[in-house]
Amino acid sequence: DITCVVNIQHNCIDSHCSRITLCPLQQERTLVEHQTKEIAQHMDTPLCLLSTHSIHSYEQIYMALPPAMQLIE
C-alpha cells in the first residue's frame, strides 16, 4: 500500500560530485547540433535531499528512511 509520496535526490553539492564529461544533447530522438550537457560523476555518499509532497506524512516518511538518513533527536 502507498501511504505517502516523497522525492529523494542525491545531494551533489555537499557530496562534492565532480563534472567529468560533456554529452551531446538530444531532444526526443534527434541530436541537437553544437549543444552539450554536463554529466556528473556521483560520489557514493548517503547525502540526499528529501522533498515531500505533504509534510503531514512525517512519521511514515521517517520510518521508511534507512538508519543513516534518520536524524538522532
How would you concisely characterize the structure shown here?
By secondary structure, the chain is an alpha+beta fold. It contains two helices and four strands; from the N terminus they run βαβββα.
Mean pLDDT: 80
Query: What is the gyration radius calculated from CA atoms?
Result: 17 Å
Please, what is the oligomeric state? single chain
Largest sheet: 2 strands, antiparallel
Instruction: Give the beta-strand count.
Output: 4
Please trace the helix and strand order, writing H or E for each element. EHEEEH
Strand order of the largest sheet: 1-4
- Taking pLDDT < 50 over at least 5 consecutive residues as the criterion, the unreliable ranges are none
Count the DSSP helices: 2
Beta strand %: 35-45%
Structural class: alpha+beta
Assign an overall shape.
Answer: elongated
Helix fraction, binned, reads 10-25%
- Terminus-to-terminus distance: 28 Å
What labels describe this entry?
single chain, 73 residues, alpha+beta, two-stranded antiparallel sheet, two-stranded antiparallel ribbon, 2 helices
